Amino acid sequence: MKKTTCLLAALLLTAIMPAALAEGLEIEGTIQAGQTRSITAPYSGTLGDFTAEAGDVLSAGDALFPGSTRKDCAPPDGTVPGLFAQAGDDAATVQERYGALCYLEDAVQYEANCTGSGADRDIEDKVVHAGETVYLKSTQNSSHKGEGVVTSVSAEGFTVEITRMDELNLNESVKVYRDSDCDSDSCIGSGRTAHRAARAVNATGSVLRVCVSEGQTVRRGDLLFEIVPDALEGMTGGDGTVKMPEDGVLLSVSAQTGTQTQKDAVLATYCPAGAMVLVCAVDEDDLAVLEPGTHVNVTLDAWPEETLDGTVEKIAYAANEQGEFEVTVSLPQADVLRIGLNATASL
Predict the structure, then answer these.
(1) Residue 219 burial (CB count, 10 A)
(2) Residue 25 has pLDDT above 90, yes or no
(3) Could you confirm whether domain 37-68+232-272 is CATH 1.10.1650.10?
């Protein structure tokens, strides 16, 4: 009877010892990033100035790295009679189908295509200069006059952009003069009036942003499109700035201001919000009281009054060089958490 009683007592003591040991177990470790994600360049280009650095806590949508884009602007004042490109489009595909990303109809809609025929015999009247102001008069009706600017000169002739038409008609024959009184000794040539064709606006690459709408009136220098050299994968609109994809903490920044970067190059890494964990090195003698799913109380050395509810997430199956096993404890999202803080988990 005595032997039986002693055996039962020993068995009972053996059963309760792990629980007793577990209740007093404390394991120390550091807060680490439970996940590491990369932020990559959406297209090739030169990085602008930025201030982001490792350790920054950022929100989804925060601007990180400004990228360079090619800006296509309106060459003259005018209107957009046809707009075919949308953000995200491959420029070559749009141009193959429609001939242009958009067309621009100049505010000055008429021109005269001229040659030196009929020019005064003086040598100076046979030399035409781009940019000079000239005057036009109809060869059929002397009251039909106009004024313009020479926009191009070639071996075959020159083109006059007609800025004022006093009763001049389309397809009307005119002579061109240097003097406003249209004296014959200032004649530099002749030609015929025509309607200026709309300009085709073309580009190479992908359309990041469309800055105009069909029918819109634009001024010289107004932005029409922002173009990038590579195919875009889901990034459209905006000004090309790479933004924080979700709430999180920057772990590293490899980007450098003013450097050329290639598409898909890693610019930075980050840990998503809520993905910080406590990593502890545990002696093999303590493994018996730990298993995935075990709840522990986590106290940060910097804030001993704060206690977080942690859960053992995984236990390494191989020891480290010191013969200890790595235990990872998942944590709830909390403002007090910082990567690198020391903490203690207790049962």
Answers:
(1) 11
(2) no
(3) no
